[in-house]
C-alpha cells in the first residue's frame, strides 16, 4: 500500500510540474506578436526569433547543471 501511495505522489508531482510548464508555455506563446506582411518587418521578426532561440538554448544548457 505504501508503494502505491508513493507512486501516486510521484505521479502527482510530475503532473503538477508538467502542468506548470504547460501554463508557462501558453503564456509565452500568447505574448508572441503576429507575423507582419511587410518584408522588412518579417526580416526583423526573424532576427528577433533567432535571438530568442539563442537565449532559450543557453538557458536550457545552464538548466542541465542544476
Secondary-structure topology with pairs:
Blueprint: H1 2-30, H2 39-63
What does this structure look like?
By secondary structure, the chain is an all-alpha fold. The chain has 2 domains: 1-32; 33-66. Helices cover 82% and strands 0% of the residues. The protein has 2 helices and no strands. The protein is elongated. The model has no long low-confidence stretch (mean pLDDT 81).
Could you give a quick summary of the protein structure above?
With 66 residues, the protein is mainly α. Helix content is 82%, strand content 0%.
Question: What is the count of DSSP helices, taking H or I runs of 4+ residues?
Answer: 2
Shape: elongated
Poorly predicted runs of 5 or more residues: none
Mean pLDDT: 81
Query: What's the total number of strands?
Result: 0
Order of helices and strands: HH
Share in β-strands: under 5%
Cα end-to-end separation = 33 Å
What is the percent of helical residues? over 70%
| Structural class determined from secondary elements | mainly alpha
Biggest β-sheet description: none
Number of domains: 2
* Estimated radius of gyration: 19 Å
Assembly state of the chains shown: single chain
